[in-house]
Design brief:
7-stranded mixed beta sheet; 8 helices; 14 strands; elongated; alpha/beta
């Protein structure tokens, strides 16, 4: 969390430690030697035995010293990134952060306009979900600003608001412009998804229509893999929540012909968690373009597509092997999805 100094916050407060470098020009000025003066004396006899007097430390050229200190302090403050805290710092307020892609999107404009009018009537400040949190009304929305990580922008907004404040984020449906761990904020964050095109999404209308259809997944498990199936099912539901695309999961037993037979409903993904081999009907679906995930032998004639890194930070984890089978793909995990 950025360090606060009254109404001023710093993006990178660690740089303030560099203010200790102000001692360098101060030391140079204290120890700088003035040019010596020529003193005429009658005799040098007896001076060798005279004790040397310590020279008093005195500042030389104080204005030059002040200039050097100010330049160094200005450099440190620039690296620390100071900015003025918001006017709502003392009491909880509500801010609305609008994704930069929404104002210029014709699809989102119809739903966005009445919502913005309602927020303006309540006095809610409207800002862009972009670095610096520029005001929406003072920004040219004809050109979409560069995409930024939403977590970083939310951290910046949270640093300017009082504890207990509220942030309403207006973003297009399928918004995924986040990276890293979700930050812990003092303000409550409310997400509102609006129809529109998320940044980086395809402009292919046919692809967009296909992405709105539910993704079919067939999850087949025997009794010994019941817990494995429970965890994989939870992962599929979590993937649906993150991607914004619905996933229709059908669970079945290995001996259920209604799900695993040739007349069963097609599925883009097949998860086979059973000790017995994958039946011919499902193998035919994989060759036709489906994707198979299993912990056993696929039973398919396939070619290697390279080994995938299984889990980040776990070098000794079982490998996940990817293979090509006709128009489909097979993923074999050399382990178990069981929690134990």
């Amino acid at each position: 969390m950025p360090a606060m100094f009254g109404p001023v916050a710093f993006v990178a407060p660690a740089w303030l430690a560099a203010l200790a470098a102000l001692a360098v020009p101060l030391a140079l000025h204290l120890w700088a030697r003035r040019p010596g003066r020529v003193v005429r004396v009658g005799s040098l006899r007896g001076l060798e035995a005279a004790p040397a007097r310590a020279r008093a430390l005195r500042l030389t050229d104080p204005w030059l010293l002040l200039l050097r200190l100010l330049l160094l302090a200005a450099l440190v403050l620039a690296l620390a990134g100071p900015y003025r805290a918001g006017a709502g710092r003392g009491r909880p307020v509500t801010w609305a952060l609008v994704d930069p892609a929404l104002p210029g999107d014709p699809t989102a404009r119809a739903a966005l306009a009445p919502l913005l009018d309602s927020l303006r009537r309540t006095g809610t400040p409207l800002r862009l979900l972009a670095p610096g949190l520029p005001a929406l009304d003072a920004t040219d929305t004809t050109a979409t600003p560069a995409a930024a990580d939403a977590w970083a922008v939310l951290r910046e907004a949270d640093a300017q608001l009082a504890p207990g404040s509220r942030i309403v984020v207006l973003a297009p449906d399928g918004f995924t412009r986040v990276s890293g761990e979700r930050p812990r904020l003092r303000a409550a964050v409310e997400w509102r998804a609006l129809p529109g095109r998320a940044a980086g999404r395809s402009t292919d209308a046919a692809a967009d229509r296909r992405d709105t259809l539910p993704l079919g997944a067939l999850l087949v498990a025997d009794a010994a893999h019941a817990e494995d199936a429970r965890y994989v099912g939870a992962a599929l539901r979590a993937a649906a929540g993150v991607s914004g695309r619905a996933i229709a999961v059908t669970t079945a037993a290995p001996d259920d012909p209604a799900a695993t037979g040739a007349a069963a409903r097609p599925a883009e993904w097949i998860v086979w968690l059973a000790a017995r081999p994958v039946p011919p009907a499902l193998r035919a679906r994989v060759r036709a373009g489906a994707r198979l995930l299993t912990t056993g032998d696929t039973g398919l004639d396939s070619t290697s597509a390279g080994a995938l890194v299984p889990w980040p930070g776990a070098a000794d984890a079982p490998p996940l092997e990817e293979r090509v089978a006709g128009a489909g793909r097979c993923y074999r995990f050399a382990g178990r999805f069981h929690p134990d």
